[in-house]
Amino acid sequence: MAQLNTFLLRELAVAVALFYITRFLIRSLLRKPTKPLPPGPKGWPVVGALPLLGSMPHVALAKMAKKYGPVMYLRMGTLNMVVASTPDAARAFLKTLDLNFSNRPPNAGATHIAYNAQDMVFADYGLRWKLLRKLSNLHMLGGKALDDWAQVRAVELGHMLRVMCDASRRDEPVVVPEMLTYAMANMIGQVILSRRVFVTKGSESNEFKDMVVELMTSAGFFNIGDFIPSIAWMDLQGIERGMKKLHRRWDVLLTQMMKEHSATAHERRGKPDFLDIVMANADSKSDEEKLSLTNIKALLLNLFTAGTDTSSSVIEWALAEMLLNPNILKRAHDEMDQVIGRNRRLEESDIPKLSYLQAICKETFRKHPSTPLNLPRVSTEACEINGYYIPAKTRLSVNIWAIGRDPDVWENPLDFTPERFLTEKNKKIDPRGNDFELIPFGAGRRICAGTRMGIVLVEYILGTLVHSFDWALPAGEKLNMDEAFGLALQKAVPLSAVVRPRLAPSAYLS
């Protein structure tokens, strides 16, 4: 009897083991994709392809794409990533598969800087994200809202022109990104808070610029902890420590802004600004329409950083290219003198008549996109593209920088040639997300919410700076065109230039 019991127990154990092994094998076979993963580099043990990206990931990924193709797979630590590097590949992901890639992957920047993804940029695609987007479009970033604060842009740009004229009289060069950040922060401050953020240009505005650049740089890092979550707590690169410190500085600034704004609420009765309107949603009775104070701070962080740094970097690159190519600057001056003359400033209503200026802006968006790698997305479900299998929870990066320099799309892509956008073939190409040859703001559901504002600011501010001044490098200086990688593509060495007024003196008084 004892032998029989032992035999039965042994047989039962074998049966149970066979059952689980068989079930595991069947599930594995069912899960196994029938099509291969996209091609890509092998990478290293444990860390995968992370060490292959180097300090300039957009450049490294563009070189890899030449070897592995327009849709490329990389094992990044313990996670999957695909990279799209051509217009067709970008269209497949951001249009055909847009809904499946509508969320952002978890990352340290969203957690430690953007209030644990309570903002608009990193929030999951859902009701809260839609509410933040709707409020921003209706009251700040949409077409009508932009028209409503056109006068704010004109006044703040006037302040900047007068500061530049003063520098010219003292024979001092202007540091372009500092000037631009100061002016744009004040424009956005007027709309959000009904006041200028910086009364005078100085150490306070320079610190703000430094904080914006630090945020964009740190948020663009490929953080090992994002790709190997089990070791994230170790913070091997020290990135998360820096993010936490930076977040505290931003939180102090945003809290102070909101406190000062609340104290002056009585002055705006009947004329609410953007923050008044958003704050009204904090008291909403509907959970779907309710915003926490954290949501509001996170949204302000988005608007002040993305609203200043991305447009500022594009304008700075455009001016640098024109200093490198004086014939382009001369042609722009000739067009403006013919359309506007020299007795008044450029107005936004002039821009549709300035086809060469618009071509310069498009060419800068192409060659120097503000975000070289589109903000990452992640797949909700497994899918297929170009005959390749893409697993669920795969990160997606679209290499906008590579698309702009693709020789199969653009003739002589390394040259800065605005004239390419005046040809019959390219003149209808638009940077608003429908023409995948030129997607500086991304495309699809998660296209940059500030696309319209970004185009308006770049065209109007760049046009005004070109029309108002002659530009030259300081004596003895050479132009450095090196890039510094981050969420926004900065010039490694900020542009410093000497300006000389070229309009009638009265034009700078308005």
Structure commentary:
- The protein is of the alpha+beta class and 510 residues long.
- It has a single domain, classed as Cytochrome p450, CATH 1.10.630.
- The chain is built from 17 helices and eleven strands.
- It has a four-stranded mixed beta sheet. Strands 3-11-8 form a three-stranded antiparallel beta sheet.
- Helix 7 runs antiparallel to helix 8 and helix 9 packs across helix 13.
- The N and C termini lie far apart (107 Å).
- 44% of the residues are buried.
Topology:
Layout: H1 2-31, H2 57-68, E1 71-76, E2 79-84, H3 87-96, H4 108-112, H5 127-141, H6 143-148, H7 150-169, E3 174-175, H8 176-193, H9 203-219, H10 224-227, H11 239-263, H12 274-280, H13 293-324, H14 326-339, H15 355-367, E4 377-378, E5 383-385, E6 388-390, E7 395-398, H16 400-404, H17 451-468, E8 469-472, E9 483-484, E10 490-491, E11 496-501
Parallel strand pairs: 2-7
Antiparallel strand pairs: 1-2, 3-11, 4-7, 5-6, 8-11, 9-10
Helix pairs in contact: 7-8, 8-9, 8-13, 9-11, 9-13, 13-15, 13-17
Number of strands: 11
CATH homologous superfamily assignment? Cytochrome P450
Binned strand content? 5-15%
Q: Please write the string of helix (H) and strand (E) elements.
A: HHEEHHHHHEHHHHHHHHEEEEHHEEEE
According to CATH, the fold-level topology is Cytochrome p450
CATH class annotation: Mainly Alpha
The domain tally reads 1
- Oligomeric form: single chain
Summarize the main sheet. 4 strands, mixed
- Structural class per helix/strand content? alpha+beta
Shape: globular
The CATH level-2 architecture is identified as Orthogonal Bundle
- Helix fraction, binned, reads 40-55%
